[in-house]
Amino acid sequence: xxxxxxxxxxxxxxxxxxxxxxxxxxxxxxxxxxxxxxxxxxxxxxxxxxxxxxxxxxxxxxxxxxxxxxxxxxxxxxxxxxxxxxxxxxxxxxxxxxxxxxxxxxxxxxxxxxxxxxxxxxxxxxxxxxxxxxxxxxxxxxxxxxxxxxxxxxxxxxxxxxxxxxxxxxxxxxxxxxxxxxxxxxxxxxxxxxxxxxxxxxxxxxxxxxxxxxxxxxxxxxxxxxxxxxxxxxxxxxxxxxxxxxxxxxxxxxxxxxxxxxxxxxxxxxxxxxx
Length: 275
Hints:
This protein is mainly α and about 280 residues long. About 55% of the residues lie in helices and about 5% in strands.
């Protein structure tokens, strides 16, 4: 649709955000089709929107997820106002629920150290080498899954010891790299050149030399984090939380952590001061 093109080319949203918005809108229009016989854009009311959100809440959806769906709808109706498809937006009377203050989960420092130690000894195949790079880079940089998967070799400067990351909204940030993780990346790139004749310019590749995809990274990190204590959550995002929490616990400046994480406001970073 033209709205999705607008998000892609004008707003320059990430593929992940565009997919989320698209899924949310399809789900909303399915709800309208079943319950309200697919009204035209001009006829969609705030009551119908609130009734959809109420159904989502009844189905156990968290406030954070509901707010994302509200953002998708706000964006969609704002776009239609701009193009003249509608005269007023029904979102004016839709109130976003308050997000519950849940503290981020993180891995203890000694558990990370033990995991790193055991991984250093088990890199006999490409999958375990991938796991070592994924977990080391996530923990050493606090990058998002989407950022690491799309990271190109040319964004890594092993001479200066830093990575240039392209974050949300195409915002660039520089993250310093410690000596240990530099060596891990260097070794990985060297092995990649030996094993694959032609490989992607992306840093991470699968056993077939193809670009790494989110599910692959998620399952691999999940598997290795499963060896650490009794974590309820074992996603790559936990390592981003761990990076930020360990920095704060060791006296890092809140503004510095905000910049490293690529947060647009301090409010998002402040949650780590409570951990």
